[in-house]
Specification:
3 helices; mainly beta; about 270 residues; globular; ten-stranded mixed β-sheet
């Protein structure tokens, strides 16, 4: 990874917790779950597509990883709302946001020693870096658009997270795709306009059945859908989602169908029809 020169506006700082406290939150994470968290951050930033690129050496070991999204980018002018937070987030009031605790970005240390966020937000560019050895601290600088990362240089907005100094190999690409399908299948089924690709391979929605019914309540039309999975998703519990007519999640609550043996109705939602 190339170091980019500072031209102005150094906004370096630290999270509101010590290094050991941060790492304790991720002690049961596998290396690939760091990828999960960074993909979720992209979708939370309104990305339509997230691309994961994994570079391996001649021995098949992981050398570099990039997670690129076409979302809004990071509001780096207000780091107190993102990189300075831990276990707290402005997203916690948003029903359709995954990163409600403001800590997922720091899961990278399970996979590598360094993470660098290259971002473009509201027409401005910046680079933010964190080293695993002092994980609460971040180095942030505003940069000129001419030296933005090549993977983001021609994008209107978005973020490219570069993971370097890898210390834990990712699974083989085929296995990584399986993990991602298990983690994100329910979300991709709920949001068909969004996509994830890994080294050019689109993440599929796992095998499932959809049961649908339309109802009217007080002269308002709703469509109720229940998604029943052939296999249990990796992490998402069974929720009931309420969507508005723009397909935005406005409310969710745990379903009474959690913990049903061999019956995985992990996603069901009520969509108000225009």
């Amino acid at each position: 990874m190339r170091d980019l020169p500072m031209i102005n506006n150094d906004f370096s700082g630290s999270a509101e917790i010590n290094d050991e406290g941060i790492k304790k939150h991720f002690k049961n994470y596998d290396s690939w779950q760091a990828i999960f968290e960074l993909i979720w951050n992209g979708f939370d930033a309104n990305a339509k597509s997230v691309t994961v690129s994994v570079e391996e050496n001649e021995l098949g070991s992981t050398e570099l990883v990039w997670i690129i999204d076409d979302g809004d980018g990071i509001d780096f002018l207000h780091p107190e709302n993102n990189f300075k937070k831990f276990n707290d987030s402005l997203k916690k009031e948003e029903a359709d946001q995954h990163g409600s605790h403001g800590r997922g970005r720091l899961a990278f240390h399970k996979l590598c020693h360094k993470a660098t966020w290259h971002t473009r937000f509201n027409g401005a560019d910046a680079q933010i870096s964190i080293n695993e050895s002092s994980i609460k601290k971040f180095s942030g600088i505003k940069i000129d658009s001419k030296i933005q990362h090549p993977k983001l240089k021609f994008s209107k907005s978005g973020t490219c997270v570069e993971l370097s100094n890898i210390h834990q190999n990712l699974p083989a690409i085929e296995k990584l795709i399986e993990h991602l399908a298990s983690e994100f299948g329910w979300y991709l089924a709920l949001n068909p306009s969004r996509s994830i690709t890994v080294n050019g391979n689109k993440i599929p929605v796992p095998a499932h059945e959809i049961f649908s019914k339309k109802i009217n309540a007080k002269d308002i039309a709703f469509e109720i859908k229940v998604i029943c999975w052939d296999q249990k998703p990796s992490s998402e519990k069974s929720y009931t989602y309420l969507l508005n007519s723009n397909n935005k999640v406005v409310h969710r609550e745990l379903s009474s169908l959690n913990n049903k043996a061999n019956f995985f109705t992990r996603t069901h939602f009520i969509n108000r029809v225009c």
